[in-house]
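Sample entry (101 residues):
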Amino acid sequence: MSEVVDMHGKNIDVGTYVTYTKTGTNGEVLDTKIDDNGSWALMNRGELDKLWYNTQYLEVTINAKRKSQNTDKKLSTEELEEKIKNKYADVGMSEDACGGG
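Predicted structure, serialized as tokens:
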């Protein structure tokens, strides 16, 4: 059986992080397959978002964003509420906020 490779010839295995170069979508490879139409990688883009991508449009990458999210500390409910309040503290509203009409 042939190996599944990206557009640059780098091996794509389960657990590899890849980017779909046409849209910039990235994720972790959950499975690979080869059929009459080419080689494919099942990319996990989120809990409910898994799609098969033709590997000729994929590029093996290091997903620094996901790694940094895993090292972030967990916030308590109170800390999260305070963070949200601070983020929107400067938001103001007035009668002519949308300027239409």
